[in-house]
Amino acid sequence: MQFQSESGRLRQSLMKSTEIAKLNRRRFLQSSAAGAGALAIGGLGASTARAAGATINWMGWEEYGYPLAEGSYATDNDITLQGTFASSIESILTKLQAGGIGTMNVGIPTWNYMPLFQESGVLQPIDASRIENLNALDPYWQDFEGVSYKGERYSVPYLWGGLPLVYRKDMEIPIPQNWADLEKPEYKDQFCLIHDTTSTMWHWVYTVTGVKDAGRITKKQLNDTIAYMIKIKKEHARMFASSYGEALDAIVRGEVQICAQGWEPMAAWAKDMGADLSWTYPSEGSYGWMDTIVLAKDAPFVDETYGLINHALSTEAQVVVGDVIFCGAVNPSAVPKMTPLARDMYTYDSVPSFYDNAPLIHLPPLESDGKHATYQDWLEAYERFLKA
After folding, report:
1. Which of 37, 79, 106, 170 suits a disulfide with 74, CB 3.0-4.6 Å?
2. Is the pLDDT of residue 16 over 60?
3. What gap in Å lies between CA 136 and CA 323, rounded to an integer?
4. How far apart, in whole angstroms, are the C-alpha atoms of residue 164 and residue 190?
5. Is it true that 32-161+289-354 and 165-285+362-387 share their CATH fold?
6. For residue 8, which phi and psi values (nearest 5 degrees)?
7. Rg of the chain in Å (alpha carbons)
8. Is the pLDDT confidence value at 48 over 90?
9. Residues 231, 233: Cα–Cα separation, whole Å
């Protein structure tokens, strides 16, 4: 089953920024125990070990390869890491469907896409007994039910975060407490919206409908949300950024004061670009996410692949998740070893509390249930928003 692709997701659009890529590569080289050797062996898109032995093909956002390449696991085990960079979550599925079975080892999609992947026949169940470091994960992630589907485990938590409202610390207008505050006169032309399909929509669904599960709304609620978004876009926003990279540039320059939705790492990257940003989760609710590692059907070098998944959850790899990617680590043993900046970005003392106002949400139904708007309905509604 094929589904229309969303726009490039936030991590892809930000990480394709040349400046951000340079910053992250520098951080990786500075923090890596392997030093220059970890990246000098060809970069994350090329092989990251010598050609002999096992080749493990992974696909996900570019920077997601840094934790995999951290340390000496690959070289010690004669493994070549071969990365293919995603342009969307759906592009990982498409790669698997178009010749990836039997050649690809792991994909790194967001957790709520895993049922779609499994129903498409591109995954194999994961044997948790072969991943020792699962026992080292935060209890919240050890108990997370979203790694399983129809009674079988298909994914492993890798990293996490949310989509908050991002703002300049030096702005003279008040920090919005609600998404609806952006309708107030003092915010007119002070913020940008960002093109990211469902990720542009989740928080406005909460604002308009007041539902607790934004992925389960009626077609009327969906249409009401799009009408409100069009109003915000036409009458209040200064710009509609085509990507998170464009939005980051705009807020760093001071062209806008607020990004109405953002991503926590934007603040860390902006610091290197000369701007001081922060973020907040408005009262109506925001979108929380967690990206997972899935095992491709008929993956070659299964033993080495399980070893790599285990390594991705290790302390040394998870430190890179925090210090280089500025995402939330799933292994709490990594937290004390992070820089203060990375350590203080997330609620590591209580992971569940992070999701109180940015819950993890299932995708809209893939097939009609006679009550709720489907995923395809969402995509068509978003096209109306784009054209308005």
Report:
1. 79
2. no
3. 19
4. 16
5. yes
6. -50, 130
7. 20
8. no
9. 5
**Residue 276 near residue 177 (C-beta atoms within 8 A):** no
Cα gap 155→14, rounded to integer Å: 25
Separation between Cα atoms, residue 19 and residue 91, nearest integer Å:
24
Distance CA 330, CA 142 (A): 9
pTM here? Answer: 0.84
How far apart CA 12 and CA 317 sit, in angstroms, is 20
| 328 contacts 346 by C-beta, under 8 angstroms | yes
Domain 165-285+362-387 has CATH 3.40.190.10: yes
Q: How far is residue 30's CA from residue 25's CA, in Å, rounded to a whole number?
A: 9
Superfamily in which the 32-161+289-354 domain is placed by CATH: Periplasmic binding protein-like II (3.40.190.10)
**Alpha-carbon distance values, 181 to 207, 371, 376 (Å):** 10, 31, 30
Across the range 313-319, mean pLDDT stands at 98
pLDDT score, position 24: 52
Instruction: Calculate ∠ Cα 6-7-10, nearest 5°.
Output: 110
Question: Coil, helix or strand for 45?
Answer: coil
Which of the given ranges, 22-26, 198-202, 229-233, has the highest pLDDT on average?
229-233
Q: Percentage of residues in the chain with pLDDT exceeding 70? A: 87
pLDDT confidence of residue 52:
57
Q: Which residues of 296-332 are buried (b: 16+ CB within 10 A; e: fewer)?
A: bbebebeebbbbbbbbbbbbbbbbbbbbbbbbbbbbb
Give start and end residues of each alpha helix (H) in 134-218.
139-142, 198-209
Place of tokens 């040349």: 18
